[in-house]
Design brief:
Layout lengths: L1 E2 L21 E7 L8 E4 L4 E8 L1 E6 L3 E5 L3 E4 L5 E5 L6 E7 L2 H4 L5 H11 L6 E4 L4 H19 L4 H19 L1 H6 L5 H17 L6 H6 L5 H12 L3 H19 L4 H7 L5 H12 L3 H11 L1
Parallel strand pairs: 1-2
Antiparallel strand pairs: 2-9, 3-8, 4-7, 4-9, 5-6, 5-8, 7-10
Helix pairs in contact: 3-4, 6-8
């Protein structure tokens, strides 16, 4: 399946286009430059995710970590983890993503697979993500297995479900071994901080077209302005206003791509009160003017 955008609910949870609940696995081919704004915005899902970078270099961020992942490398993203992806300079980014319910690997509830191997990973909140590199033997085998699972799902030959589950189960055990130090550390990340970030991002997503102050963003999570700044800096490596500006530009890019509304209309509807400032900001972020962006997207489609 080719994905070109995310569908998020009011809590920033991704609504996955999964068709078969009996086989809770989704294999996605992602060309990041086809997403509005050329990035995968902050979101989460209860499923676990494996990513393999086919081309380019991507920066993957979670609450407390950021990794630069190159072609031929990959990553694991844990359940219920806020995450974000943006391309690094160079070739356009193409990734092969697999999003699945951990139950596909765990099997029956309270099985030995669930209790001994799956829950110690998905309940380890310090394990936000794991970066796989081919020069490490165990990680090289994980990469081979997740690539093989993706290819089996993509072909959909008779019995492919067995091949997908078998390859991912093998990859999971290797991941379990690689994560031994983290699992045994006993440390936890701040779930309260995660909830605060989600609430503040949700407020921005709901009110981006309005005039927003730092105090308003902070109030959405019942924290002070100083704590709001700290949360964005430590967890998202940005400021509330930079995030708001980037979100407005991404929404404008989406409107330019999907509607025939004028640039001026779109600028005002996305929270910009000055069209000249909108044009300068858009060009700085996107590398082209709004009009040029619309023309480029029309050529692609």
């Amino acid at each position: 399946m080719i994905l070109t955008s995310l569908v998020l609910n009011e809590n920033l949870e991704e609504q996955l286009p999964r068709t078969a609940q009996a086989f809770p696995h989704l294999a996605c081919y992602v060309e990041m430059n086809r997403y509005p704004g050329g990035i995968v915005p902050w979101h989460w899902h209860p499923d676990i995710e494996f990513m393999y970078v086919l081309q380019g270099t991507v920066r993957l961020s979670t609450n407390n970590e950021c990794r630069t992942i190159c072609a031929g490398e990959g990553a694991f993203i844990n359940s219920n983890m806020l995450h974000y992806q943006e391309p690094a300079p160079g070739l356009s980014v193409i990734t092969l993503n697999q999003i699945l319910d951990a139950g596909l690997i765990a099997g029956a509830h309270k099985s030995v697979y669930e209790q001994k191997y799956v829950l110690p990973i998905v309940e380890c909140r310090e394990l936000e993500m794991m970066h796989f590199c081919p020069f490490a033997p165990g990680q090289r085998e994980i990469l081979r297995r997740i690539r093989s699972a993706y290819e089996a799902a993509d072909r959909e030959e008779p019995g492919y479900e067995f091949a997908v589950r078998n390859e991912l189960s093998a990859a999971w055990y290797l991941l379990f071994e690689e994560a031994a130090a983290v699992r045994k550390s006993g440390k936890l990340t701040g779930s309260q901080r995660e909830e605060r970030i989600k609430k503040m991002l949700l407020f921005i997503h709901e009110h981006y077209a309005e005039k927003i102050s730092l105090e308003m963003i902070a109030a959405a999570a019942s924290v002070s302005g100083r704590e709001c700044l700290r949360c964005f800096s430590q967890n998202l490596n940005t400021t509330p206003f930079t995030y708001l500006l980037e979100y407005r530009v991404r929404k404008a890019a989406n409107e330019l791509q999907r509607t025939g509304r004028s640039v001026t209309e779109i600028a005002y509807s996305c929270g910009f009160s000055d069209t000249s400032y909108f044009g300068r900001t858009f060009r700085k972020m996107m590398g082209c003017t709004p009009g040029e962006y619309r023309a480029l997207q029309s050529e692609k489609n």
